[in-house]
TrEMBL record:
Record-stated family: Belongs to the FAD-dependent oxidoreductase family.
Rieske domain mapped to chain residues: 44-132
Keywords: 2Fe-2S, FAD, Flavoprotein, Iron, Iron-sulfur, Metal-binding, Oxidoreductase
Tree of life domain: Eukaryota
Matching InterPro entries: FAD-oxidoreductase/Apoptosis, FAD/NAD-bd_sf, FAD/NAD-binding_dom, FAD/NAD-linked_Rdtase_dimer_sf, Rieske_2Fe-2S, Rieske_2Fe-2S_sf
The protein, known as: AGAP003904-PB
SUPFAM superfamilies xrefs: FAD/NAD(P)-binding domain (SSF51905), FAD/NAD-linked reductases, dimerisation (C-terminal) domain (SSF55424), ISP domain (SSF50022)
Molecular functions (GO terms): 2 iron, 2 sulfur cluster binding; metal ion binding; oxidoreductase activity, acting on NAD(P)H
Length: 566
């Protein structure tokens, strides 16, 4: 389904009819469908053809809405103007080969079909019919409802009674949800069962530490009605306790057994609790699920003192959320600065200063020896140097362990850390069993195809899509380019890449939190890039890397952004 343009020659009704026919047949906003009327559509001239050059994007107004025009390979196409994830304007994003990448979180959309090709997000974009008149006027025709919502759910196949195959998705996070949905989108007509140990439908998990007062119903990725209408069985509050690779049988904790033809495992992680005294006291919390967020949020009050162990994204996001709701927030970190592993020393130091400016206190190069409680609830924590801190709430944000214990004896090879090696198609050593998300030790395209275990939300969704395509026989190798982000006190930090750098080069004003950082690995290769208030440079680097291109340190001088398309 495309949205290509056509020349409408005024003095040839036959040519005009043919052109209109072609574009109408290849557009989601084609008109003429059963149950639609002309009033359901809007069509208007939006600009002149000369106003948009090759490999350019232009946002134009159409009625009460907006449309993104793109010209590539001499062809004009029109799609929704905003990312279907959180609504970023795509005209400010990165235009790649046949797709546009969101500047905020890296989601990618095909410029001709509007289909989502990389994540986060669940919905595709509408695409609209484009025609070009003899005088060069560009006309766009759009369905009013699509123009208003700026989202499109792809057509799903229906389950066929004669199709006896059963594909099981183990895990109800974003990866599992994307896999189940993609199976239907790509024409699978057998039985689909998605098993989720949480007692709720898949939801936007990144909200857990950022917005602890989240309304679960508002952050669901899909409703129960959606799954019912598309014949996707969902088992909630249910865990798989055993997988038998020889018999293709799953055993569930409710005693139920399911025979599968193929399976996708994306069970994610369990939050880590340190092996210290008092770690299981009341008011000692972790942050992984919506239930965890609710537990913390319900305890917050102006007189409370919060101690957070861990200076990763989870710990810092929790501190940022809590600091204006309680009397005191203290963050305990084992290193000298937070986020060193992700961003490096200099940026970590500036982030710590930002938090201190907002009233968050830090105790670095330390840890918690024990949690001290009374009547089952924490009251103090003792640090490794013997210091005592009053604590009404203690939050552990020190990483996670992979949720794969149930696969012992399954025939699937587990690494020491619980991860599972996959090939470039996400298949494990057990034929017909695919693995994705946090637990997958999978090839990373931007890291020369070397395997890595990466717990990023968008990557988990991407894994779900790729696994589904391969499960139904549409051979699709991974082309993963890790992309993640966080928002701290209103400042958005983005990162793309993977690996441990030998050097970090910062361009811009770090004090003002307006910078781009380049992470230099072996041989002078740029293995990652981060930014704050410099969009869309990280999205541009992600698209650059996805095309197999490589930057080196010498490419950054004299202009560190000379590689960015003009």
């Amino acid at each position: 389904m495309g949205c290509s343009s056509s020349k409408a020659v005024r003095n040839s009704n036959e040519s005009l009819a043919k052109a209109s026919k072609v574009t109408a047949a290849t557009s989601t906003s084609n008109g003429g469908a059963a149950g639609t009327h002309d009033d359901d559509f809007i069509e208007a001239v939006v600009c002149q053809e000369l106003e948009i050059g090759e490999n350019q994007m232009k946002q134009v107004e159409l009625g009460e809405g907006k449309v993104l025009l793109v010209r590539q390979n001499g062809k004009l196409s029109a799609i929704g103007n905003k990312c279907s994830h959180y609504g970023a304007m795509l005209v400010t994003g990165a235009l790649g080969e046949g797709r546009v990448r969101c500047p905020w979180h890296g989601a990618c959309f095909n410029v001709e079909t509007g289909d989502i090709e990389d994540f986060p997000g669940m919905d595709s974009l509408p695409c609209y019919r484009v025609t070009v008149g003899e005088a060069g006027e560009v006309k766009v025709r759009a369905k009013r409802t699509e123009l208003a919502t700026n989202k499109r759910t792809r057509v799903m196949a229906k389950r066929a009674a004669q199709d006896a195959r059963t594909y099981v998705v183990i895990g109800g996070g974003p990866s599992g949800a994307t896999c189940a949905e993609t199976l239907r989108q790509e024409g699978f007509t057998g039985r689909i069962v998605m098993i989720n140990k949480e007692p709720c439908l898949p939801y936007d998990r990144v909200k857990v530490s950022k917005t602890m007062d989240l309304n679960l119903e508002k952050v669901l990725l899909r409703t129960q009605q959606f799954y019912d209408e598309n014949d996707i069985e969902v088992m909630l509050g249910t865990a798989v306790t055993k997988l038998d690779g020889a018999t293709h049988e799953l055993t569930l904790d409710n005693g139920y057994k399911i025979r599968y033809d193929k399976a996708y495992i994306a069970t994610g992680s369990n939050p880590r609790r340190p092996p210290i005294e008092g770690a299981s006291l009341g008011n000692v919390c972790v942050l992984r699920t919506a239930a965890d967020a609710k537990q913390v949020n319900e305890q917050l009050a102006p007189e409370k003192r919060v101690v957070i162990l861990g200076t990763s994204f989870i710990g810092l996001e929790a501190a940022a959320y809590c600091v204006n709701k309680v009397a005191k927030v203290t963050v305990i970190g084992r290193g000298a600065v937070p986020l060193k592993e992700s961003f490096g020393d200099a940026i970590g130091q500036r982030v710590m200063e930002l938090f201190e400016e907002k009233g968050v206190q830090f105790v670095m190069n330390s840890g918690i020896r024990r949690c001290i409680g009374a009547e089952g609830a924490v009251q103090q924590v003792e640090l490794t140097d013997g210091t005592l801190l009053d604590a009404d709430i203690c939050i552990f944000g020190i990483g996670s362990t992979l949720y794969t214990e149930f696969l012992q004896g399954s025939g699937i090879s587990l690494n020491r850390n619980g991860s599972i090696n996959t090939d470039q198609y996400l298949e494990s050593n057990l034929e017909g069993v695919y693995v994705g998300g946090d637990i997958a030790n999978a090839p990373v395209h931007s890291n020369d195809g070397q395997q890595a275990t990466i717990g990023h939300y968008p990557l988990a969704q991407y894994h779900g899509r790729v696994a589904a395509l391969n499960m139904i026989g549409k051979a699709t190798p991974l082309k993963a380019v890790p992309f993640f982000w966080t928002v701290l006190f209103g400042k958005s930090f983005r990162y793309c890449g993977y690996g441990q750098p030998d050097e970090v080069i910062i361009d811009g004003d770090l004090a003002a939190l307006k910078f781009v950082a380049f992470y230099i690995g072996k041989g002078g290769r740029v293995i990652g890039m981060s930014s704050c208030q410099r969009d869309p440079v990280v999205a541009q680097f992600a698209e650059y890397s996805s095309q197999g291109k490589v930057l080196h340190k010498e490419d950054l001088t004299p202009n560190p952004l000379s590689w960015v398309p003009a």
